[in-house]
């Protein structure tokens, strides 16, 4: 009786694992096919001029650096 239940459970487990594996395999194939179709019909256009970062906007003024340094120094002195 217990052996019959274990065999039935193993059979159900095998069927479940095969169905999940088949579904995932088909999903991967479908996604690859969709990727190829989209790349073929809608290619990515490269820009002619690369974008540059404005260095003036990313620099920090020396007064702000001094204020941050003083705050960090004061914080470390209290500990």
Automatic annotation (TrEMBL):
<keyword id="KW-0812">Transmembrane</keyword>
<dbReference type="InterPro" id="IPR023424">
    <property type="entry name" value="OadG"/>
</dbReference>
<keyword id="KW-0915">Sodium</keyword>
<dbReference type="InterPro" id="IPR005899">
    <property type="entry name" value="Na_pump_deCOase"/>
</dbReference>
<comment type="subunit">
    <text>Heterotrimer of an alpha, a beta and a gamma subunit.</text>
</comment>
<keyword id="KW-0406">Ion transport</keyword>
<keyword id="KW-1003">Cell membrane</keyword>
<comment type="function">
    <text>Catalyzes the decarboxylation of oxaloacetate coupled to Na(+) translocation.</text>
</comment>
<keyword id="KW-0739">Sodium transport</keyword>
<keyword id="KW-1278">Translocase</keyword>
<feature type="transmembrane region" description="Helical">
    <location>
        <begin position="12"/>
        <end position="31"/>
    </location>
</feature>
<keyword id="KW-0472">Membrane</keyword>
<keyword id="KW-0813">Transport</keyword>
<protein>
    <recommendedName>
        <fullName>Probable oxaloacetate decarboxylase gamma chain</fullName>
        <ecNumber>7.2.4.2</ecNumber>
    </recommendedName>
</protein>
<dbReference type="Pfam" id="PF04277">
    <property type="entry name" value="OAD_gamma"/>
</dbReference>
<keyword id="KW-1133">Transmembrane helix</keyword>
<comment type="similarity">
    <text>Belongs to the OadG family.</text>
</comment>
